[in-house]
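Could someone model pyridoxal-5'-phosphate with this protein?
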Amino acid sequence: MHTNQSLEHRRDTAVAKAIAYSATFVAARAENAEVWDVEGNRYIDFCGGIGCQNIGHRHPLVVKAIKDQLDTLTHTCFQVTPYESYISLAERLNAVYPGDFQKKSMFFSAGGEAVENAIKIARYYTKRPALITFTNGYHGRSYMGMALSARMVPFKQGFGPFPADVFRLPFPDDFHGVSLEDTKRAFELLFRSDCAPDQIAAIFFEPVQGEGGYNIATKEFIEYLRMLCDEHGIILVADEIQSGMGRTGKMFAMEHFGIDPDLTCVGKSIGGGLPISGIVGKADIIDNIPPGGLGGTFGGNPMACAAALAVMDAFESENLLQKGLEMGELIDQYLNKMATRNSFDCIGDVRGLGCMNAIELVKDKETREPDGELAAKVAQIALKNGLILVTAGPTRNVIRLLVPLTASKEVVTEGLNILEASLEEAC
Ligand SMILES: Cc1ncc(COP(=O)(O)O)c(C=O)c1O
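Reply:
Sure, complex below.
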């Protein structure tokens, strides 16, 4: 029988060091919001493979769809020999995508590929080079992804030079002292000194920043971006790879704000555990690119499309958006109650949108100095106590909760109790 320790040794010998890991155990099986390691120990999973299990591990509809697909077709490459499930998935995604215009979709494998292709579409359509991105934004690890992303260590350091024509502006964020006025001034300065608006192809932003620490955009900020894009013919791209597919209690986080982007990148949870990402958005922008201009061997692979269609079915048949809103409320209430306890002076902020929740840990409530060390300690203790957590934020002082919308209230409450006990122990 394998043990965690023997596998750890084999992993260290055989797997590249750059592939980091946070868990001290090796997973053997998983079900909904729970994971078991190779020694039979159980963990509650508040991470879901970093936001890929919005409908839980091995949802029965997803498992059945994959098994059925396996019996008929595993891969042909859609661009050589198309299949119905890809078309069906595009239809389903277009149908749930908000906005009063014709929509089109296309599929890839990793989230980062969706971002790359959104850049291609925006540059081709506008015939312009420049891209706008924001502080604390994260958009993947490819070269364009790194250029758009804000985290230097360990994602970017040593990998330069990075692509040109990318400009980073402040993401308005009250808790960290950045106002919308600061952002507006930065745009004005950019236009005046470095890049005229008629040179900008696209603005990339996350409605809720994931890696960057669950910073939630305001309606006023998104309205401002929409206004800028309309005025200057810039493409507005919402990266919903982490915030989408029901995570916030709406299919797309942008629905909370009632503003339509031009293109949206999706990934992670759309595949119910299988690798698939995509772009959905305005047909007249997407269809500017002639046949053959975009694609890839595995994009929208039949197994992944089958799984993604099952994810869509689960959202409809199990009323998961509503469940997500209710679960988010339960988590938010619990976290807010925790934050009022005197012994938890270290909780600087509790925030969330729907079921995308976080606590930010600080050394001092007044100065809001981040405490990444404490967050790492909490995650480590939680793991020992049977709860998988993942941190976020530029100094990793934010604990983000990515609870499956399908989890039972009992399991979620058990997980929250472990979080509270771990925080108590770490403090
Ligand atoms: C908002 C956002 N965009 C892009 C990506 C990159 O996706 P992937 O790791 O699947 O390439 C991520 C991954 O965490 C993400 O959260």
